[in-house]
């Protein structure tokens, strides 16, 4: 039927071409006739023109309009432009599909569905619609091709397999081919809690063929699976079993085995062997059902046959009691672009915890695959799956999951590419790791601080120090960095500390700080960060602070607030008190009083109590003209060990040990925006293998590029600086 439709389309299109060709031929004949008339000398020019006009008019009336079926309508063109601009715009995609379906042009339908399903491959309903259009407008071969692509894209969808098998039951002629398709589907989704849809179709197929032994086998397998409708199947099986003789329920192999076992008459009934089905997660193969090796006759034998299945049912009910609450909490087992609520996200994590502990590897893999249909837009579950497969030694499965995540499902999420780069590096896939970093820097998130720093550290580990430096320098030239002074300050700090503590080049670090301060002379963050071992000379610090706290406006830059300038001056007092001479302390205090004079009298001070509230807390601790505080011995800088110490604004240990001196004031933590998927952060706290990446889902709702608070995966960078960047370092702009 599908082939006939396709041929009909070809035939219906042919007359248009034939008429166009015939009209051209007729026109040629008319011209020849006109030439003959004129050549005979009997023609009249006016008559000839009139005849020619009539012929042309007649040809115009006979020739049908040329319709380009491939041409886009204005609405199609508009929608294609929208989805090309934003491929994650689900609503525009569905509008485009509706527009293509109206015209019933197969090539347009195919092009639209192919593009849409490449972006959203888990939408099983659209795969079904695609197959239906191929059935209506295309051929049966194309229908099968669409279904095969569908079960490859969404392998663990019960609905997808059920739709495919339903089509096969209607269109396939070979029962073995249909049965083989059912077995393929059962091997993937037969243990799904809601797989009764597929099991029902399989039973229906065998019932239609009156294959009673096969029906009995299917019931036997179902009773070993804790399905939602297990009780219904149990009751149905009992009715079926007591409605047929045992000889119809047993397969030929079972009957032969029963006869062979019944041959020796010496064995007492109690010694008769009962063989059960090996545990294979219930459905991985059409294993032989449990066999009662008795002569297949009589009510007693049937009761024993049923009793074995009753034990299967009992065992399945025990497991059902353990997982029922988890399954009930899954309110949306299918894929959708809308975010899941925290309760469902948390339930998936707890369910995975349980199955990993008690279910075995096969059940674990299948639950992960089910989870990654509903939670496909959440990086945390992909990361968790990769880690789990890696722990099980299934590296190929881990890489397959990572590829699906980074190339399709969460390909716009920076955190998955950062994770991919780190994981690939651990597997010694240096080329792959570098490619993951380049995706971030070249297209997905250019200017993302975490990506820049980690990429530089990666290149340093490969022995490419110059390349690492060039990454920082290139990032500083990005327009996004230049437009955000705080982001630029943070990047300068990262670069300088990388030079000083990783590459051991304090002079280069000092030059970077000098360049940074010339560019951002009023950056308090930059001024504070520039005080570290290797760049700690008192005169140098004095010159930096004097520039910053001078009350005159600095052209081209924003001026620090009075409170910030006074705080910097107090920090300078603490620093000089620790590292300077008496004369240095005297000069610094004099400068402080010059810029920030104390109240003129105690009485005036009492009349203006609010002034003290405007002074930073540090000013209440360290007042000028108070004797120098005792200081702890100054120690050297801490050794660099990985990525755990140098990324914060807080000075190094030598400064932090002082009782009142040179300590970074606590950074005010901004209140993060409420987002729909924060549950994972609590979960990450007790998942050591991937705790660092667990926090990445605070990047925002799926399919949106919301600001991303940077987290320190694998014990990564400290978190002193992200709050200073006002959202930029969080992955968003």
UniProtKB/TrEMBL annotation:
Coarsely, its chief localization is nucleus
Q: Which GO terms describe its cellular component?
A: nucleus
Alphabetical UniProt keywords: mRNA processing, mRNA splicing, Nucleus, Repeat
Comp. bias (Basic and acidic residues): 603-618
Low complexity composition bias: which ranges? 657-666, 674-688, 698-708
Concerning Gene3D superfamilies, the annotation shows: Tetratricopeptide repeat domain
Task: Name the domain of life.
Answer: Eukaryota
Q: Where in the cell is it found?
A: Nucleus
What InterPro entries does the database record attribute to this sequence? Answer: HAT, HAT_PRP39_C, TPR-like_helical_dom_sf
Pfam families found in the cross-reference section: HAT_PRP39_C, HAT_PRP39_N
GO terms of biological process kind: mRNA processing; RNA splicing
Question: Annotated region Disordered: where?
Answer: 253-297, 596-618, 654-733
**What family does the database annotate?**
Belongs to the PRP39 family.
- Protein name, UniProt field: Suppressor of forked domain-containing protein
């Amino acid at each position: 039927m599908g082939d006939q439709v396709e041929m009909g389309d070809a035939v219906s299109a042919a007359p248009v071409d034939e008429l166009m060709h015939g009209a051209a031929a007729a026109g040629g004949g008319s011209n020849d006739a006109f030439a003959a008339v004129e050549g005979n000398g009997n023609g009249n020019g006016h008559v000839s023109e009139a005849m020619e006009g009539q012929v042309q008019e007649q040809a115009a009336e006979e020739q049908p309009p040329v319709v380009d079926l491939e041409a886009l309508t204005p609405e199609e063109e508009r929608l294609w432009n929208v989805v090309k601009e934003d491929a994650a715009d689900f609503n525009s995609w569905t509008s485009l599909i509706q527009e293509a379906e109206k015209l019933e042009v197969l090539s347009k339908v195919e092009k639209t569905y192919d593009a849409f399903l490449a972006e959203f491959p888990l939408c099983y309903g659209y795969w079904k619609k695609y197959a239906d259009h191929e059935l209506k407008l295309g051929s049966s071969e194309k229908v099968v091709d669409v279904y095969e692509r569908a079960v490859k894209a969404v392998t663990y969808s019960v609905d997808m397999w059920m739709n495919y098998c339903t089509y096969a039951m209607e269109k396939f002629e070979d029962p073995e081919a249909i049965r083989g398709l059912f077995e393929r589907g059962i091997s993937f989704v037969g243990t799904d809690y809601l797989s009764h849809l597929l099991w029902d179709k399989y039973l229906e197929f065998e019932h239609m063929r009156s294959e009673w032994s096969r029906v009995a086998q299917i019931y036997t397998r179902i009773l070993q699976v804790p399905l939602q409708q297990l009780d219904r199947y149990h009751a149905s099986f009992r009715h079926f079993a007591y409605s047929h003789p045992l000889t119809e329920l047993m397969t030929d192999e079972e009957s032969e085995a029963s006869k062979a076992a019944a041959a020796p008459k010496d064995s007492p009934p109690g010694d008769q062997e009962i063989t059960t089905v090996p545990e294979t997660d219930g459905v991985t193969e059409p294993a032989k059902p449990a066999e009662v090796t008795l002569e297949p006759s009589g009510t007693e034998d049937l009761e024993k046959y049923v009793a074995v299945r009753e034990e299967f049912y009992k065992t399945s009910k025990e497991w059902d009691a353990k997982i029922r609450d988890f399954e009930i909490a899954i309110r949306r087992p299918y894929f959708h672009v809308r975010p899941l609520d925290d309760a469902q996200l948390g339930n998936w994590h707890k369910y995975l915890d349980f199955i990993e502990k008690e279910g075995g590897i096969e059940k674990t893999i299948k639950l992960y695959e089910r989870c990654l249909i509903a939670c496909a837009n959440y990086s945390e579950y992909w990361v968790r799956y990769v880690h789990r497969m890696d722990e099980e030694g299934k590296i190929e499965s881990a890489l397959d999951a990572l590829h699906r995540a980074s190339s399709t499902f969460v390909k716009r999420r920076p955190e998955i590419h950062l994770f991919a780069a780190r994981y690939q590096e651990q597997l010694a896939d240096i080329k792959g790791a570098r490619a993951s970093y380049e995706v971030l820097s070249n297209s997905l998130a250019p200017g993302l601080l975490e990506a820049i720093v980690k990429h530089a550290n990666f290149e340093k580990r490969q022995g490419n120090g110059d390349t690492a430096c060039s990454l920082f320098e290139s990032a500083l030239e990005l327009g996004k960095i230049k437009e955000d002074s705080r982001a630029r300050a943070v990047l300068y700090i990262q670069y300088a500390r990388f030079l000083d503590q990783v590459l051991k080049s304090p002079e280069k670090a000092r030059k970077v700080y000098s360049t940074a301060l010339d560019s951002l002379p009023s950056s308090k963050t930059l001024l504070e960060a520039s005080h570290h071992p290797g760049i700690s000379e008192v005169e140098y610090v004095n010159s930096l602070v004097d520039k910053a706290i001078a009350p005159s406006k600095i052209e081209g830059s924003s001026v620090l607030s009075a409170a910030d300038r006074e705080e910097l001056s107090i920090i300078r007092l603490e620093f000089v008190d620790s590292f300077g001479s008496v004369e240095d302390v005297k000069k610094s205090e004099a400068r402080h009083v010059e810029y920030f004079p104390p109240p003129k009298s105690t009485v005036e001070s009492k009349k203006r109590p609010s002034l003290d509230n405007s002074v930073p807390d540090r000013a209440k601790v360290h007042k000028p003209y108070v004797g120098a505080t005792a200081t702890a011995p100054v120690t050297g800088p801490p050794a660099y060990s990985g990525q755990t110490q140098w990324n914060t604004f807080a000075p190094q240990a030598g400064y932090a040990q002082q009782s009142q001196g040179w300590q970074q004031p606590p950074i005010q933590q901004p209140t993060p925006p409420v987002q729909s998927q924060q549950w994972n952060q609590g979960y990450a706290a007790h998942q050591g293998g991937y705790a660092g990446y667990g926090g990445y889902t605070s990047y925002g709702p799926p399919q949106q590029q919301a600001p991303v608070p940077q987290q320190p995966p694998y014990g990564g960078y400290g978190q002193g600086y992200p709050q200073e960047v006002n959202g930029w370092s969080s992955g968003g702009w």
